[in-house]
Amino acid sequence: MSGDGLLSALGSWIPRWRRLTDDERSACQGIVGDPDLDELIVVFTPLPRYWGASATTLWRWVLTDPRREGDVGWCELMAHEAVHVEQWRDRGILGFGVWYLDSYLRSRLAGKGHWDAYEEVPAEAEARERAARHFR
Ligand SMILES: [Zn+2]
Prior knowledge:
Layout: H1 3-11, E1 16-19, H2 22-28, H3 34-39, E2 41-44, E3 55-58, E4 61-64, H4 74-109, H5 114-120, H6 122-135
Parallel strand pairs: 2-4
Antiparallel strand pairs: 1-2, 3-4
This protein binds zinc ion (ZN).
């Protein structure tokens, strides 16, 4: 690996974060209330790659693979994650965690695979449906 390659590989591990840009905010307007769009912080980190996700929302922090920034579907991804920010706020950290894991673990115990169990989590179904409806 060259010096530049090493620097760039290390660089992707140094998280950077920002609020939604004005364009991203406009694209997400109406899907959740303005306070949730104000609260949302995009954190660029390769971490979600390790569990096969494009992004993962923890409270108001949306951990996002930096390679996804500006991709086709980027604004829909942010809208999906903005719904999760609203869900976390509505239910609280414990309430959201129990709501999410209860469904996921029941599906897994019923013998479903990770992705099927994930798809059936009500939080995911709601975020997927609201983001898709907003962008189609
Ligand atoms: Zn989701």
